[in-house]
Amino acid sequence: MDATFRIKSLPAPETSSEAYDFSLSPGGKALTQAIACARLGLKSSLVAAVADDRFGDDILEHLESEGVDTSLVKRVHGANTPFTGVFEREMGDSIAVNWRNQGEVFLSQRDMEDRAGDLVGCDVLMTTFEMPRVTMERTLALAHREPDNRPLVIVTPGQPYTDERISPQTFGRIDYLVAHPWELGPFAPAQVPFTPGPVAEKLVTFGVQTLCLLVNGGCTIYSHPVEEATPVPLFPTIYKETSVARDAFCAGLAAKLIDDNRKFSPEVAIWASAAMSCAASGFRSESMPDRKQIDTFLDRSGLRPQRPATV
Length: 311
Prior knowledge:
- Strand 7, helix 5 and strand 8 form a beta-alpha-beta unit.
- This protein has a single domain, classed as UDP-N-acetylmuramoyl-L-alanine:D-glutamate ligase.
- The strands form three sheets. It has a six-stranded mixed β-sheet with strand order 7-8-9-10-11-12, with helices on both faces.
- Helix 1 crosses helix 8, helix 8 runs antiparallel to helix 9 and helix 9 crosses helix 10.
- With 311 residues, the chain is an alpha/beta fold.
- Helices cover 32% and strands 18% of the residues.
């Protein structure tokens, strides 16, 4: 659950200030991505662990109201729902504190093995680093169990694993890594000034097929073979990037790849970036756009790629 306080400024230490708005709503990257996919007309199922308290009931009810399948969700008896406290300023700047309760509410390797048939049978598998590292690695291995008939894999590296190393085989099982620059820090050499570009290129060299680096509402694409990064035009927005904008990008990427028979192109990246800009106008999953909103935004922006004329 997300407890969001909207404020004009953060209070100084030892003081307090009044929030001008407050909301308590289901949240989390996976939940928001599942809803974003459903808004784009995809058949969306969430694999997650959810406590069986009243907040867990709210989470499942919210998902079902958005058309997300919850049959693969694991309910954890007697556990407390994890919470994130978010402080958002008027133009989208925010800070957050997470309490994951990962000792109680988590997905194990066995949980994913029990759902292996669903992983292999989908078109796109979207996952985050919010699950334990060993579970994430096992999930990607299961998805690749049938190499000629496997889903595309889109990974969000948040929150990064700071004290655990990801195996080289796992990097090779990631088709699209959608990251913010700071999330690449754990992959940078120690005691060297951090620069995201070289780290992104290294990740692609070591197996990631395509890395989408999101910066201030824009996107830079690194793909194999590494030659040069491809910038995606920055779409106009009156808001700074919010916590759900990346989730909209991931959903837009998944939808467009399915539309285009898994073929990545500049048009796919631009459409996903437009989805991200549409979502930046809101702060929760309710701001996830549908296809009509994205297409209208692209037409008005003048940045839609022109298809070659046919005769």
